[in-house]
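Hey, I'm writing a tutorial for new members on how sequence and structure tokens pair up, and I'd like a real worked example in the thread rather than a made-up one. If someone can provide the structure for the chain below, I'll link this post from the tutorial.
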Amino acid sequence: MDGIKHFGIPKNDANRAHKEIAVEFLNLVGLGRPKEALRFFAPECKTHNPYTVGGMDELTDAMIAVQKEGAEGILKGSKADFELIIRQVLADNDLVAVHTQISSSTPSEGGLRQVHLSVSAETRLSSIGISPN
């Protein structure tokens, strides 16, 4: 994956700072650099991901493993290239929901759609979760 396509957040958005943290985290994931994104998380950040057990280190390790496996880590048996696309970013104060799609270069292989939920504590994320497909 090569990062995400530019996702614009209006300058006058009251929740801009919270949205930018969530989008930048996902951009680093899409670029294959999830460990760099740890700077956005509070030390006590909790994960709520049904696919991983542990904290942020375990979550980013799992992301790296999937990226190393390439497309086969996303859709079993696929050899296609994939792209991470942000479809929508919603925020209510410190609660941010990001609707993403991992899209295949081979349309018949579909992709993966997820909602990532995060709670910000000032300028860092204090909780992150994922809603499965």
